[in-house]
Amino acid sequence: EEQRSLLLSSSSRFPPPQGVKLSYGTAGFRADASILQSTVYRVGILAALRAVNTQSVIGLMITASHNKVSDNGIKVADPSGGMLSQDWEPFADTLANARDPEQLVHLIAEFVENKKIALDGAKSVEILVARDTRPSGESLVEAAKQGISSILGAVAHDLGILTTPQLHWMVRARNKGLKVSDIDYFKQLSSSFRCLVDLIPGGIHPSDVDDKLVVDGANGVGGEKLELLKTMLNGLVIETRNSGKGGGGVLNEGVGADYVQKEKVVPCSFGPQDVGIRCASLDGDADRLVYFIVPSRSSNKIELVDGDKILSLFAIFIKEQLSILSKEIDVNGNNDYQCRLGIVQTAYANGASTDYLKQLGLEVTFTPTGVKHLHEKAAEYDIGIYFEANGHGTILFSEHYLRWLETRTTVLSDVAKGSEQHKAALRLLAVSELINQAVGDALSGVLLVEAILKHMGWSIQRWNELYQDLPSRQLKVKVMDRTAVVTENAETVAVTPPGIQEATNAETVKYPRGRCFIRPSGTEDVIRVYAEASTQNAADSLANSVAKLVD
Ligand code: NG1
Ligand code: ZN
After folding, report:
1. What is the ipTM of this complex?
2. Is the keyword Isomerase in the record (predicted)?
C-alpha cells in the first residue's frame, strides 16, 4: 500500500555503508559522519514509529558529543525527555544494519505488527530534530527528516542548533502539554537561578561582584548558548572562551570537558593568567560539565573538580535543605514526610568521593556506565542525584515529592512566611526548575554550582577540599572484538574471558588502596581500564599491568 511504497522509494536513496556493523550504544549511533546518512535516515523512521506508538512528541539529536569533529551520531529522546526505551534498542540495531530497501521494509512491517503500531496516519505526531555545530549536521538533519516523513502522519520539526539537554528538555516540556520555544528554556534557567540567589542567607557577598567564572565552550554549541544565557543573568560574571565563533578553534580539539577530565591539563586559550580562578569546561554538546583550577603559572597541569565533586556539592546543599525542612513539625508534633534521598554513581567514581558521601550518611548505589542506567536508578528516589565522573549528571525530583513540596510552601507561607523551612522548600523547588529533569545538562549545572557556591560562600578551592581524590588512571586498549569482555556487578567484575578477573585481582592486591576494573566501551572499539591507588605511580602501574592482560 501507500506506506510500503513510500518507504521503498525513500530508502532507495539511502544505501547503507558496506562492511560496517552499527550498534545503538550508550550514546546512540556514533561513527565517522561520512557513513551515517543511511543510519540517520533509518533512525528517523524509528523515531517516527516511536512517536506513533506512544502518541507523544519524540526527539532526535544529531551529535557526537565530545568525539572529534569529523564524527557524528544520532540518538533518540523518549517522551519523558530521557533516553530511548531500552526495549527498542535491538530494533534500532536491526534497522541500521538492514541490507537493502526490501529487507528494511520487511523488518519495519514485522516490528509494526509486533508492537501493534497503528500506522494509519490518522493522527499526526511530531518529532523534534536538533543538531550540534558539526558541519556534517546539516545534511544529516535532512536525512533524518526524510526518514521521518516516510512514516504516514509523522511530522519533523527542525529546531536547528541546540545543546543535547535543550532538545531533551523541549521534548519533555512538550509532552507535559507546554507550548515551549527554546527561549523558554533560558527563561526557566535564569529565573530559577535568580530565585536561588534571592534566597541566599544575608544576600550576595559584595566581594562576589567581580568574582568571575571562566568557561571553556569546547568550540561547540554550549559556548554559543551560554553567551545567550549570560545576557539574562544578574549577579554572575561569566567569561566564555572557545565559544566556537569567529573561526576560532576546532570542536573538541584540545578543549572541552572530556579533554580536561582525561588529560588533566588546561584547555587551549587557558594558561598562567587563570591561576586560582574558577574555571569550567563543557563538552561538545553541553551535556557534560567539569570545573578546574590552574594551580601554578609554571605548568599546564590542572586541579580537576570533576563530576563526583559536583555531585558532592549538590548532595551537601540538598541535604542541608532537607534537614532544615525536617525541623518542621506539624500540629500533632509529627514530621509528616521523610524525603528519600539517593546518590547514584558508576565504578568510575573516585573511591574518595564514595567514601565521603557515605560518611555524610547518604545512600550510595552503583549502576553500569551510561546515563540511562544512572537515570533509571535515580528516578526511584524522591530526590535522586546521579553523576558520572566525567561530568554528566543531574538531580531528579519525583512528581510526588514536588507536589508535597508545593503544598508545604503554601502551608508554610500561611503560618510562617519567611521561616527557614519555607525558604528551604522554595530552594528545593527552584533547584527542580533549574536542573534539567531529562538528562545531564552543563548549562543548568553551571548555574546550580554557581548558586550553591554563593549560598555557601565558598571559593572553588574550598569546594575542592571537600575530599581529596585518590590518584587514578584510565587507559584504553584497542581490540578486535570488545564484546569478548562481559562484565557484571555494575561492571566491576569481568566474567569473560575466563581468568581475566582473577589476573586483575592478583595485580590489584599488590597496591595499597588499589581498585581496578575493565569493561568494553559502549561508544568506541576499545576495552577501558580504570585503576586507582594511593599514589599516581601506583595507579599508573596498576592500569598498565592490567592493560597488558587485556591486550
Ligand atoms: P563508554 O565509551 O561506554 O565508556 C563513554 C563514557 C560514559 C558516557 C558515554 C556516552 C567514560 C569512562 N565513559 O562511554 O560515561 O558518557 O561515553 O557519551 O567516561
Ligand atoms: Zn556530550
Report:
1. 0.97
2. yes
